[in-house]
Structure formats: structure tokens, C-alpha cells
Specification:
The protein has about 250 residues and is mostly beta strands. It is built from one helix and 13 strands; from the N terminus they run H-E-E-E-E-E-E-E-E-E-E-E-E-E. Helices cover about 10% and strands about 55% of the residues. Strands 1-2-3-6-7-11-12-13 form an eight-stranded antiparallel beta barrel. The longest helix has 22 residues.
Length: about 250
Amino acid sequence: MKKVIVLGVFLNLLFCDMIAQQLYKEDPPVLIKNEGEFGFILHTQGWGFNYRRGKSITVNTKRFWDFDFVTEFHPKEVTTTNPAIPDAKSYIYGKLNNAFFLRAGYGREKIMYDREEKRGLQIRYNYGGGLSMGITKPIYIEVVSQDNIGSNIEKFDPANPQDPNYIIGRASFTYGLDELQFHPGLYYKMGLSFQQCNENNNFYVLETGFVFDVFPKEIPIMMQTPNNKFFLSFYINLMIGKRWNRE
């Protein structure tokens, strides 16, 4: 896995530099120092949101602070419902925790191609990394009470898992918020983006790439199946943003 990731990073950087040499032939555009972007992320194990705040170093290069908040699903999750109970809610049997990643990092971005028209297209590549905080919240489910009249809200217990025949479904997301666990780690991200700007320096971005998160210990998401401490995901990020020159 490590060799594959290192090779992918090297080839991506080499490929991007080759394209930049071929495509970026026009005169440098006017330097606009500041840039802010907000986006919605879809990735191979969930979804989330992104904010990026950048500052130009040269007309072709900028540095940025990057923030992600994403959900993280386990590949073995299977959503089910209890057919014996009317109006049963869906749930995932064996799921111990909801998992989220909160990332905060620093990166660099380079313009590979830039058309100077007001509605021109820019092609950029970026890379960066920083801290990745894994956050887990226990799963609570609603089960039929012992008297078969009402129901109870219970935490899913891997040591004594509830009988699926008596599970009504998932409980409210608010259950377990006071039991959050935090798992500090690191991440590395690399992306390729396509950006179109308008006359007001507002712009729209489609970015695709990969993120690699690593933690000292496994993130407990499912029972009776291996959990991971290494997470490689591929993403698409749809962003809107604005450039400006005021400090």
C-alpha cells in the first residue's frame, strides 16, 4: 500500500509538471492575492464539506489553508429493516459508531493552464496535508421492550448484540453526542481542479483527487470485521469561491 501511494504521488506530480510545460504558454495574468472557496465533497466512503483559504505567492502559485469535514463509512456496512415490524426504520446491524474526519492542513496550488478571458478556464493541481481528527459517535437503536408493549433506546453492544427480530430501527442521531471519542492522525491530499471565473472574480471549481488518512489505532466502526487505521479515498469536490485584492 505505501509503495503504491508513493508511486501515485510521484507520477501525479510528474504528469502535472509535464502538462504545465505544454499548456501554460500565455502571458501571466494579473495577480489577485486572496481567494476563498466553499465546497461539497463526495468521496468513495462518504460525503462532506470543504473550506479553503488561499493567498497568491506568484501569478501561477498560491499557498492555502484547507479544512474538510466528512463522513466515513465502512465498506462492510449493509442497510436493513425488520420486515416483521410495521413502519420499521432502516439501520446497519453490527455498526458500533458513526465516524467523521475533521481535517485541517496546509498546501500549495499551481496553475497549469489559464485563459485570460473574463470567463476563462483555469486548470490547477494542488497538494497538501496536515492533521486529521477522527471522531466517533456510538450507535443507538430502538428495540422492542421486554413486555412487547413499548420500546427502549439502547446502545448497540458488541458483547451482547440485540436480536435483529426485536430491532425497530435506528434511534435519533442526538443519542451518543455526549460520548464522542477523538482519534488524532494525519492526512495527505492531492487534487486536480478545473476553474471558471466570471467578471466579478466569482468562480466555480470542479476538483478531483485522493486523500490518504492515517491513525495510530484502528477507527472502530463495525463489529466482527476488521476496522482500518489507513484510509485511502478518491473524491470529487464542487466549490464556489471568490477572489479579491483587499487585505
